[in-house]
Amino acid sequence: MKKRIIGLVLVCCMAMLSLAGCKKAGNEKFYIGSIGPYTGEAAVYGTHVCWGAQIAVDEINAAGGINGYQIEFKFEDDVHDPEKAVNAYNSLKDWGMKILMGTVTTKPCIAVAEETNADNMFQLTPSASSLDVLKHDNIFQVCFADPNQGSASAKYIGQKGLATKVAVIYNSSDAYSSGIYKTFAEEAKNQPFEIVAAEAFTDDNKSDFSVQIQKAKESGAELVFLPIYAQEASLLLTQAADRDYKPIFFGCDGLDGILSIENFDTSLAEGVMLLTPFAADAQDERTKSFVKKFKEAHGEIPNQFAADAYDAIYIIKAAIEKANVTPDMSISDICEKLKKAMTEISVDGLTGSGMTWKASGEVNKDPIAVVIQNGVYVSAE
Q: d(Cα 272, Cα 289) in Å, to the nearest integer?
C-alpha cells in the first residue's frame, strides 16, 4: 500500500512537472514595451509610433513569431514628459518588459536612458534623435541623429539652389531643435546661401512667434528653416500667413505629422518641404502594404514616426535572431547579446535600405526629401 501511494505521488509530481513545462513553453514571449506621447501636444508622434509598431508585431506573430516565440507588446503614455516617461518605464518593468522600443521624443528618452542603463536593458528608440540619447552603449536609434539632419538639410538647400537668404527659427531650450540648428549653421558655411536671421524661442514661450516671423521677413529670407516639432510649426505657419509672409518653409522629421494637427488649416502647409526617411507615396510593395494596413486600421496616412516604429520592431527581430536570444534570458543577458548583434545586422525597412548601426548607436541610412502637395507628402526629387 505504501509503495502504491508513493508511486501515485511520483506519477502526480511528474504530471505536474509536465504541465508546468508545457505552460512555460506555451507562455514564453518576448515582452517589448514602448513609451511615448499618446495624449498631449505631441500625441501625433506617439500615436503613430504605437500604431506602426503594432502592425509589425501583428505581422510577425501571424508569421510564427521570432524563432517560434510570440511578441507581447505594450505602449505607455508619457505625454512628452520626462518624469511621466520614467514612471511609464517602471510600470512596464512591472509588466515584464525585457526590451524597450522607445521613447518617442528626445527629452523623455534622455531621462529613461538613465534607467535602462542602470538596469542594462536594451533600448531602441524609433525617433529620439539627439546624440544626448546615445550617452550609454545599450541605446540605439532608428532615426537620423540631429547632426546628420542639420548638415543634410543645409546640403540639400544649397545643392538644389532653393534660396540665397535663409532664416532659422528654432527652440533653444530643446536638445532636438538646438542640436539640428548647430550643425545646420556649420554646414551652411560651405553652401551658397547665407543665414540672414537666426531667431530662437523656448519651451516657456512657444505660442507667439510674431517677433521671430517679423525678423525673418525683414531679413529678406526666401526660405525659413524650422528644426522644430509639428505642433509649434502649425502655430508658426498660421501666424506667418496672418502676416502675409510666404517663404519656403523647410524642416526635418519633427515636422512630419503636421497634417494631423487638430484644428490646423492644412492648406497653410502647402509647399512645406522636409527631410524624412519615409515617403508614404513610395511605390515599393513594402511601403504600399504598410500604408494600406495603417489606413484601414486608423483612417490616416502614416507619418515617418509610424514607419520608424514599424522598422524598429523588425530591427529588434533581426537582432534577436542574429544573437539567438530567447525570452527566458535575463534583461542584462539579452541586452549584451543585442548590443553586439546590432553592429552585425543589416536591415531593409520602410525608412532605409541596408540600414546598419555603429557601436555608438547611430544608424547609417540616407534621408528623403518630401514636399506637401494637395494635402499629402510627395517626393521632392
A: 26
For residue 124, what are the β-bridge partners? 101, 140
CB count in 10 Å sphere of residue 63: 8
Query: Is the Cβ–Cβ distance between 338 and 320 less than 8 Å?
Result: yes
The three-class DSSP label of residue 163 is: coil
Coil, strand or helix: which one is 161? coil
The distance from CA 206 to its chain's CA centroid, rounded to whole angstroms, is 23
Q: Are strands 122-125 and 99-101 parallel, antiparallel or unpaired?
A: parallel
Higher per-residue confidence, 92 vs 257:
92
What's the CA gap between 49 and 59, in Å, rounded?
16
pLDDT > 70 in the chain, percent? 93
Indicate the helix (H) or strand (E) that contains 165: strand 165-171
At 381, the pLDDT band (50, 70, 90 cuts) reads low
User: Could you tell me if 364 and 371 are in contact, meaning their C-beta atoms sit under 8 angstroms apart?
Assistant: no
User: What span, in angstroms and rounded, lies between the C-alpha atoms of 263 and 266?
Assistant: 9
In the beta sheet, which residues pair with residue 198?
168
pLDDT digits (tens, 9 = 90+) for 152-209: 999 999 999 999 999 999 999 998 899 999 999 999 999 999 999 999 999 999 999 9
| pTM higher than the cut 0.90 | no
Domains parsed from the chain with CATH numbers: 29-144+284-366 (3.40.50.2300), 147-276 (3.40.50.2300)
- Torsion angle defined by CA atoms of residues 334, 106, 257 and 147, in that order, rounded to the nearest 10 degrees: -100
